[in-house]
Write a structure and sequence with these properties.
Length: about 80
């Protein structure tokens, strides 16, 4: 449990540092990521579990994620 808490703090620290470096506030991050301001605020306070999709959107907006999302492949033709 302690390790998970440390990982969460590391993510919050990473996002906070990226915001500071860019001179962004929560409103700007919300606009760029499409994640609501209350969700971002609660994430930065550590008071909510955030959906992985929202973390992905935040990291992409901050240019901290270089992975491109791929659409799910349908294998229905193999049936």
């Amino acid at each position: 449990m302690k390790k998970r808490c440390q990982e969460k703090n590391t993510l919050v620290e990473l996002i906070s540092l990226a915001l500071q470096e860019r001179g962004w506030n929560i409103a700007k991050l919300s606009k760029e990521s499409g994640v609501s301001q209350p969700v971002i605020s609660r994430l930065l306070k550590g008071t909510v579990n955030v959906k992985i999709e929202n973390i992905y959107r935040i990291l992409r907006a901050l240019n901290l994620l270089n992975v491109q999302r791929k659409k799910a492949v349908s294998y229905t033709h193999l049936r």
